[in-house]
Each structure stands twice: as C-alpha cells, then as structure tokens.
Automatic annotation (TrEMBL), chain A:
GO terms for biological process: transmembrane transport. It comes from Cohnella thailandensis. The chain crosses the membrane at residues 12-33, 61-83, 90-114, 134-158, 201-218, 238-258. This is ABC transporter permease. It is a multi-pass membrane protein. It is found in: Cell membrane. One of its GO terms (cellular component) is plasma membrane. It holds the Pfam family BPD_transp_1. PANTHER family: INNER MEMBRANE ABC TRANSPORTER PERMEASE PROTEIN YDCU-RELATED, INNER MEMBRANE ABC TRANSPORTER PERMEASE PROTEIN YDCU-RELATED-RELATED. It comes from the Bacteria.
From TrEMBL, chain B:
Gene3D superfamilies: 2.40.50.100, P-loop containing nucleotide triphosphate hydrolases (3.40.50.300). Its EC number is 7.6.2.11. Residues 9-240 form the ABC transporter domain. One of its GO terms (molecular function) is ATP hydrolysis activity. InterPro entries: AAA+_ATPase, ABC_SmlMolc_Importer, ABC_transporter-like_ATP-bd, ABC_transporter-like_CS, Mo/tungstate-bd_C_term_dom, P-loop_NTPase, PotA-like, PotA_ATP-bd. Belongs to the ABC transporter superfamily. Spermidine/putrescine importer (TC 3.A.1.11.1) family. PANTHER family: SPERMIDINE/PUTRESCINE IMPORT ATP-BINDING PROTEIN POTA, SPERMIDINE_PUTRESCINE IMPORT ATP-BINDING PROTEIN POTA. Part of the ABC transporter complex PotABCD involved in spermidine/putrescine import. Responsible for energy coupling to the transport system. This is Spermidine/putrescine import ATP-binding protein PotA.
Amino acid sequence: MRTRSRNFYLAPYLLWIVLFVAAPILLILYYSFQDVEGGWTLSNYSHFFTSVYMKMTLSSFWYALLITFFSLIIAYPTAYLLTKTKHKQLWLLLIIVPSWVNLLLKAYAFIGLFGTYGLTNELLEAVGIGRQQILFTDFSFVFVSVYIFIPFMLLPIYNSLEELNPSLIHAARDLGASAWTTIRRVIIPLTIDGVKSGCQAVFIPALSLFMITRLIAGNRVITLGTAIEQHFLVTQDWGMGATIAVFLVIVMAIIMILTGRKRRGAR
Amino acid sequence: MSANNNAIIQFNHVTMQYDSDDAILKDVSFEIEHGKFYTLLGPSGCGKTTILRLIAGFLTPSAGDIYLKGKRINDVPANKRQVNTVFQDYALFPHLNVFENVAFGLRIKKLKQAEIDKKVTEALRFVNLSGYEKREISEMSGGQRQRVAIARAIVNEPDVLLLDEPLSALDLKLRTEMQSELRELQRRLGITFIFVTHDQEEALAMSDEIFVLNKGTIQQSGTPTDIYDEPINRFVADFIGESNIIEATIVRDYLVKFAGQAFECVDGGFNENEPVEVVIRPEDLELTTPDKGKLKIKVDSQLFRGVHYEIVGIDEAGNRWMVHSTRKAAVGEEIGLIFDPEAIHIMRFNETEEEFDKRIEEFTEVSGDED
C-alpha cells in the first residue's frame, strides 16, 4: 500500500525522465550509428578520431578550462568577501540577478558593448589608446562566458563558505597560522566540495557552448558545441553530430563521477 | 601606569566598545600571575569571553593597553602571541585526524617530523588519548574531542592557556570529571590557565583566583573562599551560591541591626546609622526551638535536596530566610534560627573593590578574627 502510493507519486517524474532524458540519449546513440543515407555504420566514430575532430575536442577542453579557471579565481575571493559583508543577502542577489536574464539577450548586449563603435571602443579612443578589435576574439569569448558562468561558480562556493564554522579560522590563527596559511590549510580544504560542484556547474556547460561562440567569437572559435549545431542544422549530417554528442555525454558522466561529492561535515 | 614585569598578563584601563553600542568592557584593569588557575565568572554578556578574545588577539581594544610578559600586545596578531585557546565548541579541524589536529601548530612552526611525532605523542598521553592518533574527529565522543582540543593547545607550550567555557557541552558526570582533570593538568603543566565560565560551582571548585564580572566591569577578584565568604555586593553574593541578603542598619562598628534586633558581628569601619546589606549563607543558619533562636521564622516551604533540606521561612519583620539543614521542618511550623557573629557579612552600597579590601584588612586585624 505504502510503496504503491509512493510509486504513484513518482510517476510524473519517471515519465519526465523517460521522455526527456532517457529517450533523447537513446535516440542520439541510435543516430550516431547511422550514415547520411540511414544505413548502419561505424564510420562516424572512426571519423571522429581523426585530427580535425581531435583538434576541435582539444580546443573545446582548452576553452572550457580557461572559462572554469577564470570563473573560479574571480568567484572564490568574491564569495569569501561576500560572507564577511553586512548585507550579504543583498549582495548575493545582485550577483545572481544577471543570471535571470536570457543568455541571448546578454550576448547581444555584449555585441553592443564590444562592437567597433561600442561603448568600450569609445572609451579606449577617449583615453587615447584607439579603437581595437574586441568582438570576435578569444578574449571576448572567454570574458563573456566567464561573466555568464560566474553565478554558477559563486553559489556553491558561497554556500560551503557559509557552512564553515568561523571558530575553525580562529583556531588556526590561534595555533600560529598566518592569514594565508589559514586559507591554504583550513578554508580551502574545507570548502573544496563547493569548489568541485562550482567547477562542475561551469566546466560541463562550457564544453558544449555554441551560442556564444557564434555571436561573440564569430565562429572563430570552433568547439564541439558549434560542431554539433553545424552538423544538425547546416550539413544535415545527423550521424556525425550525434557521435560528438555521445562523446560529450560520456565525458560529462566521467567528470560527474570524478568530482562526485564525498560528504564531509564542515562542523 | 606602565607594564608590570611580574605579571604575565596585564590589562590597563581596557575598554571595548562597538560603534554606538554600550561598552562590553568598561575601563577594566587587572593583573594575572604566572602558574595560577584563574576563572572569569559571570552571567552571559558580562564581558568574560571578550576578555579572553582580547588576550587571544581576536579582538583589539577600543582603549587601554594589554601586556603579555611585559610587552604591549595590542597590535600583535593572534598568530604571533604565545597563548593558545581551547574553544567552546572545540573547533577541531574536521578534515584532519587526531594526530594532524594536534600537530597543526607544530607543522606551522616547521618542526622536524621526528620532533612533531614525539611532541604529539606526549601531548596525547598527557590527556589520556594514546592510541587515538589515527582516528577521525567524527569518530570521537564529546569528552574525547575536548581532550584533543586541550592536547592541540598545550602541545605548543603556551605561556597562557585560555579556556572558553570548554565544559558547557558535556553532561554533568563528565563535566565533574573534567573539572578535576583540568585542575590536575594545570598543576602538572605549571602554566597559567584562564578559564571562562558562568557556572559558579565550577569556578569555586577549580580556581586559585576568581574574577567576578557583571556588565563589563570586574565586580570582585580573589580566592574562592574570599569571594564566597566576603562578597563585595549584592550581585556577587547572589551570583556565588545561595544567600540571604537582608537590608540592615549599622548601630556602630561590630553591631548591626536587622529584623528589628541588633546583632554582634565582626565587621567594622562604618558610619553610625549607615544603611547596609547583610549576607548570611543558608548553611550558616542552624535550626532550634523558637524560644532559643536569635530569630524566629515561620516555615513557608521546604524542599529535599539530597544532602540537606532547603527550608524557606519568613521572620516577624517580613524578611525571607533560606536555611540549609539536615533536620526536617514542617510547613507552617515556627522555628528559631541561631548563627555566629562570624556568619554575618556586611556589604556597603557602592563600595569599590579597593576600599572594600582595605577596610576588610584593617578591621579584621583590629577584631583579631582570622575567619
């Protein structure tokens, strides 16, 4: 009786999982073994392991790493300062608010800001540096991505810092640790779970970015995300697109397992 | 006043105040000597933890100077002070095992591994935790965590060990055990302990010296017997143990009038007709028949407390008296009370500790009474 009613409540969620998680993955898997004419083939996979795609994979990882790295070194100190401020809820809200705005809108806003006649260039000209090519560069791509991903990095780190018992910091200082040693030997080890989930929340989506690569990087940066989009929408080679997607799903699963949370009380 | 080199810690007119709030500490001065067990005692919010934090270096005084071994340490950060703290919640590092927790301070000093091994082993043996080196903190009980926290502090051989209500989280039996263990530990180490508590019994049982604090000032300092037998004012008398505090008038030195009668006492140095308060401890009152008693009370209530009965009665002038007696009384019964002149302790209104000490010294000598 009890388990039956529990199964009943689970039904909507299970239905959702089957329709929108399991089925699409199976479909992608199916397509990855299909050639353009609809026949069974392994050629997509052998094609994937050629230098063109390997280079693309490498550059995807490289950019995702850069984005994660910069998000982390900006978000960690910010989160730390945030836990020390008086009106932390307000500051936190101000940092999170931009993530409520649609990604596409933010991308267009940056096109306006970084364009040849945008605000940034006006400023550069005013101070005498002169107009620069900002849009469609690696810099603008990483910058905008970091801007977009920071809240996702910041929140889990902020939460783990908030959970940290402040008397542990006092204890470290009391035992002779300098401010830097306290950060290195106590604060970072005890908030590493937050850092891990933050990195997960940034690295995985950053691996499959395509909208920003197109709008901000002007397709100069080709990542696996852009490749998938191209294959499905432009070249109509669904098999190849699906193969790259299968590869990404596997990579993400591996990352999730590696960075999986080992709960350790911070009290 | 400059630094006193005999004192290990000295506070000179220290005030602690946040913004426009009331000061947490108001112009506090005291000295702490080497090798003694001190207790800061007071209700919550009295400033006792603030004093501890000022010594540890987690707070900087708003005014006044703090000296450690004769050196002014107002601007010395916590990590550069030769003092260590046992925190109320122990503050053990959950990501390190017992050994690494104790070794934390030693690793920062960059000692050799062999030396660290030796010192940690010794510190753990000192607190009876040998063999627990590899345990995780989460596997330790409350009492064991307490010992780890003590070992982690004493392994650094501090000049002063600060203990911030470390026993408050333990159950009664364990707490009593740890009280005598801490006392014993202090004797063996021979260093100064400063222990913060709101539990007066704990303070009386463990300390060489007690500082009683209230509302950011030190009300009285002295040995447990001094403070218990000769409280300076109503707050101290009330906070340290049960007491009968009765309004009285001085007839002349060594004669005080309360409950409509004059009684001999051993205190002097007063003005005639000065209004004062009299303290008589419940255990100094003895029951007798109404006709033999110095005072007559009518029993209002009675509680059995195990070692004694706690009897509360009202005298003819309307004063409330609490008596601790091994004899039983009946509610509504008329009984007599007898007490020695030495049992009467007289407190003046608004007397400073300095004046109080001077008067006690002077007039105890005159009466030739050492009690």
